[in-house]
Write a structure and sequence with these properties.
Helix content: 25-40%
Strand content: 15-25%
Length: about 290
């Protein structure tokens, strides 16, 4: 399984969304349609996902707890199901103070784990208040994981217990450390699908910024490589290809999630270089 990020535009331009989806067509099995990524206003994820699907790419709708309470989130999930969107990735969301509306309320009525539990409850025919849902939706439920963060193993198991069927991880740069996290997860659960995150670096400056983000560990060797080269993009692609190959060799990894910040063309370059192409043709949505 190969997935990637796909950011909706900060406008109402459907053509932009379709053009961005076209870049990933045939390169990935599904694309995450982000929910106002980095707390910056963008086209809503659910209608954007419909445009992505119309472009021939299977969408995964990201849902955060940052902007909506449990009433709005359940309503959105039911509406998305009515539109035939079955794949979701749930997370708490970026802090609004870091985005373009820093005075916005950080709702957080439901945590990332509670969002997963909400989707599972709807799929089982119940609203969070216990009311029955006629014609319950079918969802393929995903959650995030941060293998480099302290205590992430227990948080990850809380999400699995809540109903997560697949996990997409934060970018992995230290494969050895990731393998220890993976071993612990697989020791207790062999069913959840794990897609290891790989971020394509572009410059030494970007690498240094990433190294300051909690939950992302960038080894000194990677930082030194990016500082030592004149072409950061070429080196970033080379590192990503090496990382994908190493991760694919680990038992228990079910796929790769590619991050290429504002650089969707890099997804195809890495996928081709790592031997991920051509992608198999799968009929129908990845539902459970």
């Amino acid at each position: 399984m190969v997935t990637a990020e796909l950011n909706p535009p900060k406008s109402a331009a459907a053509s932009v969304m379709r053009r961005r989806a076209d870049v990933l067509k045939g390169v990935v099995d599904a694309a995450n349609v982000t929910d106002s990524n980095r707390a910056n206003v963008a086209m809503a994820a659910i209608p954007a996902a419909v445009l992505v699907r119309e472009s021939g790419v299977e969408p995964i709708v990201q849902v955060t707890g940052r902007d909506r309470n449990r009433i709005a989130i359940q309503a959105d999930l039911l509406g998305a199901a009515a539109l035939g969107l079955p794949n979701f990735l749930f997370m708490s969301g970026d802090d609004p103070t870091q985005g373009n509306h820093p005075d916005a309320v950080n709702v957080q009525d439901l945590s990332g784990t509670e969002l997963v539990r909400t989707a599972a409850s709807l799929r089982d025919g119940k609203l969070l208040n216990g009311d029955d849902v006629k014609d319950p939706p079918r969802y393929f439920i995903g959650a995030t994981a941060s293998p480099a963060a302290p205590a992430d193993v227990e948080r990850t198991f809380e999400k699995i217990a809540a109903g997560a069927q697949f996990l997409q991880t934060q970018p992995v740069f230290d494969v050895v450390a990731f393998s220890r996290w993976l071993t612990e997860i697989r020791r207790r659960d062999r069913n959840v699908a794990i897609l290891a995150g790989v971020l394509v670096l572009r410059s030494a400056a970007q690498t240094e910024r990433l190294a300051t983000i909690p939950g992302i560990a960038v080894p000194d060797a990677i930082r030194a490589r990016m500082r030592a080269v004149p072409d950061g993009e070429a080196e970033g692609i080379a590192i990503a290809i090496e990382t994908v190959r190493a991760l694919r060799a680990l038992p228990g990894v079910n796929g790769t999630h590619l991050y290429a910040i504002e650089w969707p063309e890099a997804v195809a370059l890495v996928a081709r270089g790592a031997g991920l192409l051509p992608r198999p043709i799968v009929k129908g949505a990845a539902t459970a």
